[in-house]
Amino acid sequence: MWNDIIFAVSSVATFANVLAMSAGILAGVVIGAIPGMTGTMAVTLALPFTFYMQPVTSILLLVALYKGSTYGASISAILIKTPGTASAACTILDGWPLARQGKAGKALNMALVSSCIGDFISNISLIFLAAPLALLALRVGPAEYFMLMAFALCMVASISGNSLLMGIVSACLGLLLATVGEDIYGSYRFAMTEDMKGGLSIAPVLIGLFALPELIRMIVFRDGPQGKAMKLGDNHLTLAEFKGSFKSIVRGSFIGVVLGAIPGIGPSAAAFFSYGEARRSSPNRDNFGKGELEGIAASESANNGCCGSTMIPLLALGVPGDVITGVMLGAFMIQGLTPGPLLFQNNLNEVYMLFVGMIFSSVLLFIAGKLTARYFSRIAAIPQVVLGPVVLMLCIYGIYAISSNTFDVTILLIMGAVGFVMLLLDIPAAPFLIAFILGPMFEDNLRRALAISRGDLAIFFQSPISWLFAVLIVFFLAYTVRWELQKLRQKRAES
Amino acid sequence: MSKILKSLLAGCALAIATGVAQADYPEKAVTVVAPYGAGGASDLAARSLADVARDYLGDQPVVVINKTGNGGMNGARFVSESAPDGYTLLLARVGMALYPAVQESSPVGWDDYTFLGSLEATPMILAVSANSPYQNAQDLIEALKSGASPLAYGASGATSIDGFTVQALLSDNDLDPLRAATLVPYKGGSALATALLGGHVDFLAVAAGSLMPHIEAGKMRALMVYAPSRMDTLPDVPTASELGFEKAGQISGWSALYGPKGLPEEIVAQWTGVLKQVGDDPDWLTLANRRGSISTAGQGDLAAFARSQYELFNGMAKDFGYLK
Predict the structure, then answer these.
(1) Are the beta carbons of A338 and B216 separated by less than 8 Å?
(2) Nearest chain B Cα distance for residue A338, angstroms
């Protein structure tokens, strides 16, 4: 095995590979940072170019784009309160307050460091834990998915901000919106126009909910955010701050690894889980949502923690878990490689080269992040009167470009108005988004499980995985109720 | 007023430009719309066609764009409503005939197009997990008939192509197509393959492309092929018509090239010629082989075939009670 790995190192270190990875990561960071342009889009656009590359080079390019864009999304989340992709939505909760306190550089550095550590741990897991994680991924059937999603929705309590009630209201609205369109059995709900039959896509809802309300607020109240001018020099992350968040980074990385390996769950849910858990267990929990570095660490380590492990079902089983790995499967096929168990028998050399290249790309991600952070953090110094219109234009253009459909732009604008009303009423946007993303998985798997069991509810308590989540749900609900009661008592004592 | 005048003038100029274009088609890039997502069957077929057809179009490039959503109808509607100038074409799939056949109201009819030519047949496979007790299609049907333990099958939906594969088989064997097996809906070929691998459903009949890697790896067993002829890669697996299943024997996946209704005859004739050449092109045949599909480029009467497919699915939708 070691000989194989040494051989792989020497064959992966070619100019073409390094160029493909560096270019991919740099382009990914920039594309991810532009609101409305997603990693999926970057990977799709690059696909035709890979037809003429070496197999390993082409996959490394696609992986690099994916990793770069996942980190890049945090840049715009922190600096302009606009997540580049849904997985950075939790990064906003603390990144944006930090940027307003004039600590954007610190926040960016924390995002970069935790992204790279999450990424690295994920790559190592891909190499050493691929077999057990692939087995786990197959064991997760409709009933287990449903219990996992039920647990995820309970965690809305952690991202509700000041008021749990408002968080639940927000999550319910998100679940309601998720029902628009065709359900899994082919009947239509709320399909008032032809376009609504297909349901609402995530990107316009995400951008509309997070980016537009801030812009509308600027127009309506004629003021920009009261941010301090950025100091570029003294914004480094201190060792103490890093140590304080280290536990959350490692935990976030592993949450990312496990959830990334299960097909269909993805980095948004992982970031959200990690953030919720960090907030529950951190000594600084009261500072979460007001500009806590640990919050950024938890969210970013988890979403990049998915990047390597999302390749596990693709490589080990031959089944892509999301759109990006779906495009990668197409790229593998065009190259004449078939992902799955046979890949490890027939193309072991390529597999090792891919592994080595991916580990190497974690380092490249750090370098690319360091290089670009300096330029990106200057965005915070741009006057809002200039930045606002540019962001608005990018949002609208980006959303149109994803599916070339003006319906998505309409959704973007409507969601912007909804988001603005929510901002005025102090209803948090994050629970809305996460419920909107998880809603279809929650419902579809409930209906699948009940179809398989022919209506028998016992199916939800048949496997150890289901039991595990059932216990976690009870534990978490009890914990939340206790915490809420404590807060209530404190308030009473104060008044 | 001057604004209106200007746009009128621009419109005239455009009309003249397209008029000239028809005389010497194509004089700019041709856009082929793939109505489903990147990496899927329609996308890969479109990109392969784009790669090969350029040589036979006077070196004009073919550009592929994905217009997805609503079961492929968004892309289909976009093309059927485009100007019939030959510069916007559709990489049609079986869904373009299936959707109007099973929905009460469809944004595009099955024949709202100019039919340019068929491209490929993409077989579908009836498969079970490798550790399943069923060795062949007959075993499975007998288990379904005995009804001892209810079996579940995976499909994209009741009225999707991979739902009809199973329901047609049930109907051919005098079983109730809606009740003899339980439908468990999943979105997309990969999710379906995962559900079978994980043992969450008992069997399915979906596109070969999603299953072949697992069959080759020995994780799944192919029981029957939905295709006009046996697959080169599975020479021992019988087709549905060989086993005497009438409705199931007519079902298969396919791709074809459509244009908006009312394409000028010269352009149709030119594409007929181009697709004949594409069908003989070694690159096209290699790419088709890699995708696991059988090239039909330049063969058969597409309009008649599309009609027969529409009628097949429409008939089944009425039989099974999806349409009144």
Answers:
(1) yes
(2) 6
